[in-house]
Design goal:
Elements: E1 4-5, H1 8-16, E2 21-24, E3 28-29, H2 32-41, E4 44-47, H3 51-63, H4 69-85
Length: 96
């Protein structure tokens, strides 16, 4: 599987669409210039495979009253599989 590069245009499209958190998988490359631009815009990148992603989804579930740990783990797992397994997936904004 080839690696994908996040371009400045990708970042700006997400930013102007209201996204402040971009979820990406490890097969994405974020060039230093794009990372600097993201910081200046207040946008952060979170990797699907990270604990931070898991924590974000868990908080979102808690906000909707889902407190059963097994259900939350299943939701995190399914979200991860959808994002990593879908070659068309560009990312997911969980915090708007």
């Amino acid at each position: 599987m080839g690696r994908r590069v996040v371009s400045r245009a990708d970042l700006e499209k997400c930013y102007y669409g209201g996204c402040r958190t971009i979820i990406i998988s490890r097969d994405f490359i974020v060039p230093p210039g794009v990372m600097d631009a993201a910081r200046s815009l207040g946008v952060r990148f979170v990797f699907v495979e990270s604990k931070e992603f898991s924590d974000m989804v868990s908080r979102m579930c808690a906000d909707y009253g889902m407190k059963d740990e097994d259900i939350v783990k299943e939701i995190v797992s399914r979200c991860s599989k959808m994002l990593v397994g879908d070659k068309k997936a560009k990312g997911l904004d969980l915090e708007g």
